[in-house]
Amino acid sequence: MQSIISKINDSYKKPSVVDVHSGDTVKVHQKIREGSKERIQIFQGLVIRTDRKNSHTSRITVRRIASGVGVEKSFLLHSPLIVKVEITKRSKVRRNYLSYMRSRTGKSARMTGVEFDREAVNTVIDSSAEDEEHKLREQTAKEVAAKAEEKAKEEAELAAKAAEVEARHQEQAGS
């Protein structure tokens, strides 16, 4: 019999999540809300830590170098703000926590790559995330269409004004 706590935890889990390991280079697609607008931001880097793999609070810590400064971000894999996690490279590591990578830069930070089936690993069917992404795309398409319609209306008004000015000019030139 499943305990009440585990039932509640399972209700907050996503149906399927990419199996991420330490040493993977990933692209994390995250929803960012700025005012009333939403967009998807991609954070690409090396996974230096994975925590609580089978829990609804499973977390990965991703590190990247941005403008010469090391930046680390932790992502909850089952969070509704994470749209998808895409593995781009898999490396051979023997640890779960790669804290030594913080002191490495340049050639010493390189890791030995391992061949893997990128399509099989990254294929995760999550209909709710796909629906959310589709909604965002539709919303941006509507905004673009509204802006184009507004611009066309302005251009039509300008053309009408130009025709009116041209007509007045013709009248003045004719008299």
Word description of this protein:
Strands 4-3-2-1-5-6 form a 6-stranded antiparallel beta sheet. It is built from 3 helices and 6 strands, in the order αββββββαα. The relative contact order is 0.14. Helices cover 35% and strands 30% of the residues. By secondary structure, the protein is α+β, with helices and mostly antiparallel strands. A hairpin with a 2-residue loop joins β1 (25-34) and β2.
CATH-defined topology of the largest domain: SH3 type barrels
The number of helices is 3
The main β sheet shows up as:
6 strands, antiparallel
Summarize the helix and strand pattern as letters: HEEEEEEHH
Shape: elongated
SSE arrangement:
Blueprint: H1 4-12, E1 25-34, E2 37-51, E3 59-66, E4 69-76, E5 82-91, E6 113-114, H2 118-122, H3 127-174
Antiparallel strand pairs: 1-2, 1-5, 2-3, 3-4, 5-6
